[in-house]
Design brief:
9 helices; mainly alpha; two-stranded antiparallel sheet; about 65% helix; 2 strands; globular
Length: about 220
């Protein structure tokens, strides 16, 4: 269970695909003009990532090394096709908003990266939680980006007016705004992590004798 919690923490905080690894930037910057688009893209990617991790982990001892990557792509493409059909049937407006970026999930470096580096080398349960953790981290990243871009650029959240139109910074809702907001969120995340690390007291010897707190205590 501790390993499962570690995989969740790893994907959401420690190795967040959006704010730490800086992966999947194409959909991250392209579809996050609104919170709904970011949330929809993140959840869609999480479903595909989790399902493909499970299957790849189950088949890890069967797939020959020579065709490993083509096999991964076929597995991922199968789940992407299923998810796209479901979106077309039950959420056609979201499917239209995400457009070409749904089929492009097949070559998303987050999914293929986790398949190669983790699912193909670990058991099913660990791969399941790795997929959920990375998927949640990606979903949170896109949701935060979409929330701030929609709020600042359009003055609304989920199409509900929050800020009068006269105060909207419209460039934030456009392509350049994605870079500005992403940079601000990454900087904020790094600042918070630095502050948390400074609050953790050091234990043991760090070989810095001139400023050693243990020496002062003696």
């Amino acid at each position: 269970m501790n390993k499962c919690k570690e995989r969740l923490f790893n994907g959401i905080i420690k190795e967040n695909p959006t704010f730490v690894l800086i992966l999947g930037m194409c959909p991250t910057l392209a579809v996050t003009s609104t919170l709904m688009n970011g949330l929809g893209m993140g959840l869609t990617t999480m479903v595909v990532l989790t399902a493909s991790n499970i299957i790849i982990s189950l088949l890890r001892n069967i797939i020959p090394d020579g065709v490993r990557m083509p096999a991964f792509i076929v597995i991922v493409a199968s789940f992407v096709t299923i998810v796209q059909f479901l979106l077309e049937a039950y959420l056609p407006s979201l499917n239209a908003s995400l457009g070409i970026y749904i089929p492009l999930i097949v070559v998303n470096c987050i999914i293929l990266g986790r398949a190669e580096s983790f699912a193909s080398k670990n058991d099913v349960v660990s791969s399941l939680f790795d997929g959920i953790g990375m998927g949640l981290g990606f979903t949170l990243g896109l949701s935060f980006l979409g929330f701030f871009r929609e709020l600042i650029g359009q003055g609304s959240v989920l199409s509900h007016r929050i800020i009068p139109e006269a105060y909207n910074i419209k460039i934030i809702a456009l392509a350049p705004g994605a870079f500005f907001v992403l940079a601000a969120l990454i900087a904020t995340r790094n600042k918070i992590m630095d502050m948390n690390n400074k609050e953790i007291p050091k234990t043991g010897c760090d070989h810095n004798c001139s400023e050693c707190s243990m020496r002062e205590e003696e």
